[in-house]
User: Fold this.
Amino acid sequence: MLRLEKLVKTYKTGDQALKAVELTVPEGQVLALIGPSGAGKSTLIRCINRLVEPTSGKVYLGDVELTGLSSGALRRERRRMGMIFQEYALVERLSVMENVLSGRLGYVGFWRSFLRRFPQSDVDEAFRLLDRVGLAHMADKRADELSGGQRQRVGICRALIQNPALLLVDEPTASLDPKTSRQIMRLICELCKERGLAAIINIHDVALAQMFVQRVIGLRFGAVEFDGPPEGLTPDVLTTIYGEEDWEATIEAVDDDEDDIEVAV
Amino acid sequence: MPVQDLKGQKIWQRRTGRESISHWIMWLIGVAIFAFCWQRISETTTWFFVWDAPRIANDIWTRATPPRWEYITQLGQPIWDTLNIATLGTIFSLILAVPVAFLAASNTTPSRYLIRPIALLIIVSTRSINSLIWALLLIAIIGPGVFAGVIAIAIRSIGFCAKLLYEAIEEIDQTQVEAITATGASRWQVMAYGIVPQILPAFAGIAVFRWDINIRESTVLGLVGAGGIGLQLSSSLNVLAWPQVSLILLVILAAVVISEWVSAKVRGAII
Assistant:
């Protein structure tokens, strides 16, 4: 469904953020991208929808090659890739509804969007999604009145209303408390399952990643160091990705966490 | 290093010896220049007039008080003109300043090396010439009257508004723009959804702030014949009708106080 071929990004400063990354994501697979800060995780997902222009290499979304597209064609393809951000990236001074509907901008003409005259089907879908994430009563609130977890739910709605085939998720939980983090991760993974969406989730929290995803990619200095199931993340593997550290606690914490959840339920 | 080693004790001074000497020389030159300028100004000043100033000022004060209150019936129209010059001038200038600001902001300009310098040039050139001088030029071109005043205020304000607005555009949160771009929105949609909501408070603040300044500036435009209350002021001064002058100054003061109050209220409501 998504295929990266020898994807390279070299910044103007000479930093090589991605070194010939090869990656294939099948339909409906949720994978976590882990790695230390500066490993190129954000750059990788931004190179897919070309918020950052890759230096060389190819990105195939289905049969379409993205890196060579004109700006018009790129906008049409961007509609198929929903993006969720670390700091939510909602437009703070717009209402929740406007933020969700902004996910339809790629489908609606300028004047209709400027005058906020979105098609009724879009408005219906927006209400359905807000109801799904438990925020239907918040539709009229301004985005900056919401708490962190609520904002991220609105961000999820904005990505899903695009009706995407792929979700690009950049540190969805980095600004949230541990409980909300799990709720948000669970929500993202549930929604992906419901809709058969593939997703690439950048995440710092290894334990959280292991809890929810089917596949983990470890990135180090812009190269793939690990590609496998979450159980494959042994202390040795984590050392090759992050460097020397006592990893037992991190991995054990996962088991504890799962117990916690069972108790909580 | 201003640290000296004296018998094993470290002595710290703010400046080294050479630095403090050069510092003293700079001060000496400064004082010398001041004394020289004072002397030159003193030579060309008719000191009799200066010593006489308090008496003259007192004389004018007694002539100007009390103000000629009944003259106020003739000031309604001019002060209304003045308000209109300021308001229309501000509106026109905002209409012109918004595109200039978008062309000048480094994150929205279509071309950093061609269009941005032109936009910055427009900002600098309109700002650097006083509205009174714009009015003099425009009166020569389009004739005396309120319209010349409106255009003078409008041109003078473009640079001010565009400069503050483009600084606001450069300070926006870029991730919100990224998020809108990622939905597949067009360039104009990104502007309408990602940028405009973020700069709207700054825009409203700039608009009322400039309107407030323009009311003060438009009161003097009449001195050169560009309409408004300045016209009455200049004719009253010409015939030495001091009671009228004092009334006009009071009316201007009232207008400025009211405009300050309005703009403070509006800014308070936005922020």
